[in-house]
Amino acid sequence: MRALLLALAFVASAPALADSLMPAAEYANKQLPDARQEAQARALMDTIRCLVCQGQAIGDSDAEMAGDMRALIRTRIQAGESPEQIRAWLVSRYGNWVTYDPPLDAMTWPLWAAPLLLVLFGLWLVRGRFKRRRKG
Amino acid sequence: MIAEGGLAALWLAAALSLLQLFLGIAALRPGGAHLLRVVRPLAVAQGLLAALAFLILIWLFLRTDLSVQLVAANSHSAKPWLYKFAGAWGNHEGSMLLWVTVLAVAGAAVALLERRLRQDTLIATLAAQAAIALGFYAFLLMASNPFTRLSPVPVEGNGLNPLLQDPGLAFHPPTLYFGYVGISIAFSFAVGALVTRDVGPAFARAMRPWILAAWVFLTIGIVAGSYWAYYELGWGGWWFWDPVENASLMPWLAATALLHSVTVLATRDGLRAWTVMLAVVAFSMSMIGTFLVRSGILTSVHAFAVDPQRGAFILALLILYIGGALALFGLRIGTVKEGSQFDMVSREGALVANNLLLTVILGIVFFGTLYPLAVEAVTGEKLSVGPPYFNTAAGPVALVLVAIMGAGALLRWRSDRVKALGNRILIPVLVAALAFAALLVFAPDAGMLPLLGLALAPGVAAASVAPLWKRNLRRTPIFIYGMVIAHLGIAVSMAGMASESAFTKETLVAASPGQIAHVGDFSVRFDSVEPIAGPNWTAVEGRLTARRGENGREFQLRPQARMFSSPPTPTSEAAITTHWDGQLYVALGEEDEQGRWQVRLWWKPFVTLIWFGGIMVALGGLLSLVGRLRRERKIAPRTDAGTRADPEAVSA
Amino acid sequence: MKRGFIIWVPLALFVGFAIIFAIGLYAPVARTVPSALIGQSVPEFELAGALPGRPGLSSGSLRRGEPRVVNIFASWCIPCRAEAPQLEELARRGVPIDGIAVRDRPQDLAAFLTTYGDPFATIGADNDRRVQLDLGSAGVPETFVIDGQGIIRHQHIGAITSADVPAILAAWEAAR
Fold first, then answer.
1. In angstroms, rounded to a whole number, what is the distance separating the alpha carbons of residues B68 and B157?
2. The pLDDT value given to residue B212
3. Nearest CA to B182 among A10, A7, A11, A6?
4. Strands across the sheet with B505-511, in order?
5. Residues β-bridged to residue B517
6. Which end of chain B has the least Cβ crowding within 10 Å, N or C?
7. What is this structure's pTM?
8. CB B304 to CB A12 under 8 A?
9. CA B219 to CA B551: how far, in whole Å?
10. Up-side HSE of residue B288: CA atoms within 13 Å toward CB?
11. Shortest CA distance to C17 belongs to which of B309, B358, B370?
12. pLDDT tens for residues B584-632?
């Protein structure tokens, strides 16, 4: 569960997540010894969507499957893969849905164009509201 | 019988709102002005009835009256009384009743207190408020009746989601709703002014206190919600860009822009059409937010039952109210004269820039939240838009906005000289540049956005207090203090956000008794876990001892992993200790096969500034409101609207 | 300045979003995440047998010319118990079924098979969910229909009810 703006959203109590009886994967909750690699893994985990709870990133999800995905990411980072390779691998399995950081493609360019267009449109809108400054 | 009493009160309130609407329309016709004497009491009575219905619902929850379906489904006799009480709005029907209650009470408050608005505009405003209320009464009575009886009466209720069993629930939803729905007044004012063609400085001055009041509540609600998520979820996050969070942020962005544009309208008679538009947009964002959340149309953490029926009902209301208001805007705004023009380098020039950028951020949040929905509706493809997008797209815009905020307060109204501004802004710029240089030396690895945020914060803080420089502090109007404190709060909050994202330290350990973990400059010893029991939960409580540095004072940490009995749900209670320069945040996870406990530790430097700044912003708004009202009382209102200059124009 | 069309922009935008809302309401967001591998080849994997003396499962054994059904399940998953009779039904109709047991201990798995039936030709042990993630499966139970060349032809998410059996059978028939 995540952001509790519950004034707006009163959660129907979620079913207790069915978890296996096996212990969590080693790297589900263990940091990589190399601090730089761990930082890379953490940054990636915070942008991958949890498949079970769907409303949060695997970086802060209590679901067991999120733990397995964290373990997968840490192990692969440790093996020398780049975060973007791992993201691409996950996208090839689950589609763009799995990443909170939409890649720039035919489907997502409006997202990135929107802020620019908004600024330009706003400037065009206010251009008539300003007086010309007199010299001096 | 008492539940039926609540239902009757709702029906009666709905009938009164219908009457209020018709009499309001009649009063606007030639020769109908005397009807105002009837419309005001009607609005007050309607507000009282809605409040009565809501109090009855609270009463039913406090008594755990299981013959009422809503109580049986969302409460339990073993709950502490506070959560029985707050449970009244911890569900769909109850929260919608709170929604309507705030709507009706806000309308009643306008009817009781508003004395400065032109008579005919006031009537039109009350009629608009009644029209909105009518639709939501219909929604409650037809699609979300909170008073439905249950037969046979169950032996026990289902209980309340444990995440909601927290003092935060008692405080956060009501404050948020007062703001979220209170902004409806601005919407009604705008509709009223469009109907009577009364868009001008006098209208702006009448509307401003109402906007301020709603905005203060909204600010407090969002700040409280953010802190609640932070300590209740156990992962140290404070903002997730979740659709539901965005639903509360969007009205705030619109209301903040409105607050500033209404000042321009009151002071300089500019931004007429724009202010009316924003007033419509602000409450439209509240309604759209409610629709998004209630229809379950977006995947969010809030796992609600998806109910197209309810969603369709609210969508119909949206189309009626927002579509109607925007159509009225299109038809009428042409008859509203253009406001005066501005000089680029002036207080109002900065305010226009502020409005522009706030609106851009609003657009980014709106677009990013709805884009997945649009793509899926059109192509069937699924995609996710989350924190990386919002931070990247809105972050830089927010930084520019905050910089302009710092500079804007140093500009004079009407026109200012660039050179004079340069002299005034020199010190803040130096402060920011020094901070930036220091950060580059000491914290080169922090990301670009946090780095800029940290550098900008002290500069903007310096610029924010500058308006008090060389002033007689005793004779400075209170609303100036309000502005200074609110702007300072934004800088403080931004410093907290930037610091949290740049400097947070994380340590995860699987701890056995006696083991010591280090996070930041704290060493934390894991001593043991103990079972404990609460009124309706059991828990394992971690016993940890922490110490700062080599020989700091030892203190205890008690994070819990709780299991609630009804419904059975695990939750995490983090142990958070606040220090002068940040918070130590410790959460307890699960036990592994070797009997070691999963412990998550974070050191978050200056994280508390996020909410402390937020509270300052709200406080600034409150001071501004008090200052305005006191000032208005001193200066007797003149009936010929718009001739008297706004006091602000004199004081700047 | 003429305001012309600009004043109608907000209304136009709102109408656009209202249409999207309406579509979204009546084609509600499916809460399931389908695999992106449908129509593509099964990734390479190799799983040891989940039970002593029983063969495991590898991608190679899914490319032997006959279509197969791969069922991802676990003894700790409640819906998996509900779909057991339907798997039995498929097996009775001649569909070869391989199992992938997710995070399952041999003793629990053996007990599950004894209680709920054992329609599986082979059962691979996916103890760290690596293969489940590799297949783009987002939970248990899920069922894949894979043709003789190892191409994933069909995915069924969630427990198979009796109403779902014909669709899975048809997908399997079509893959022959």
1. 10
2. 97
3. A7
4. B505-511, B597-605, B582-591, B575-579
5. B524
6. N
7. 0.93
8. yes
9. 41
10. 29
11. B370
12. 999 998 888 888 999 999 999 999 999 999 999 999 999 999 998 888 7
- Cβ atoms of C20 and B370 within 8 Å: the answer is yes
Using CA atoms, how far apart are residues B287 and B603, in angstroms rounded to an integer?
38
Rounded distance between C-alpha atoms, residue B103 and residue B180, angstroms: 10
Cα–Cα distance, A127 to C6 (Å, whole number): 14
Three-class SS state of A62: coil
3-state secondary structure of B423: helix
How big is chain B, counted in residues? Answer: 652
Nearest to A125 by CA among C18, B648, B347, B261: B261
Is the pLDDT at B287 greater than 90, yes or no? Answer: yes
H-helix segments, B380-447: 387-408, 418-442
| Tokens encoding B34 | 């005397």
Contacts for B223-227: CB closer than 8 Å, 24+ residues apart: B223/B611, B223/B614, B223/B615, B223/B618, B224/B168, B224/B171, B224/B172, B224/B175, B224/B176, B225/A3, B225/A4, B225/A5, B225/A6, B225/A7, B225/B168, B225/B172, B225/B176, B226/B610, B226/B611, B226/B614, B227/B168, B227/B611
Structure tokens at C34: 């389908």
Which residues in C lie closer than 8 A to residue A52 (C-beta atoms)? 138-139
Interface probe with B: pick from C2, C5, C14, most Cβ of B within 10 Å: C14
Contact between chains at C139 and A98 (C-beta distance less than 8 A): no
Looking up tokens 């950028």 gives B357
Q: What residues of A are in contact with residue C33 (Cβ under 8 Å)?
A: 51, 54, 94-95, 97-98
Encoded tokens for B577: 């200790």
Q: From CA A127, how far away is CA B34, in angstroms rounded?
A: 45
- Indicate the helix (H) or strand (E) that contains B252: helix B243-268
Distance (Å, whole) CA B369 – CA B357: 18
Q: In the 8-state DSSP scheme, what is residue A133?
A: P
Per DSSP, chain B holds a count of helices (H) and strands (E) of 20, 10
Task: Write a three-state SS string for A66-93.
Answer: HHHHHHHHHHHHHCCCCHHHHHHHHHHH
CB-CB contact of A51 with A42 (8 Å): no
What confidence tens digit (pLDDT) does each residue in A12-60 have? 323 334 688 888 888 998 999 999 999 999 999 999 999 988 788 999 8
In the three-class reduction of DSSP (H, G, I as helix; E, B as strand; rest coil), residue B626 is classed as helix
Contacts of A90 in chain C (CB under 8 A): 133
Q: Can you tell me which residue has the tokens 């082979």?
A: C122
For chain C, give percent helix, strand, coil, nearest 5: 40, 20, 40
Contact B110, B176 (CB under 8 A): no
One-letter identity of residue A39: A
